[in-house]
Design brief:
single chain; mainly alpha
């Protein structure tokens, strides 16, 4: 819990909002570029947004933009990463309370 006090809840919330918005927009941009056969955002980059805490944004982007919905790697992988992150956070908060 000391780390939460050091970093600050407000800063954590701002970070999570930013990474989720960026992840959501990255999905939209990649879909837009896919329709135009343009340069694409690498799949690993899209996954990185999820790993960095942007799971809600990237998952929302999948369904709002109907992008990568045929790829199990995205429709299963991103929610699994998000769920594991939530479990880890709950565990760490329980251990360090």
């Amino acid at each position: 819990m000391e780390i939460l006090k050091t970093i600050g809840i407000k800063n954590i919330i701002i970070y999570l909002l930013a990474v989720n918005i960026i992840g959501f927009l990255a999905m939209g941009l990649d879909k837009w570029k896919a329709k135009r056969a343009s340069w694409r955002i690498p799949e690993n980059t899209l996954f990185m947004f999820t790993i960095l805490g942007g799971g809600i944004g990237t998952i929302a982007g999948i369904y709002v933009f109907r992008h990568k919905t045929q790829k199990k790697k995205f429709t299963i992988g991103m929610p699994v990463i998000f769920i594991l992150e939530v479990i880890l956070i709950i565990y760490l908060l329980y251990i360090f309370k």
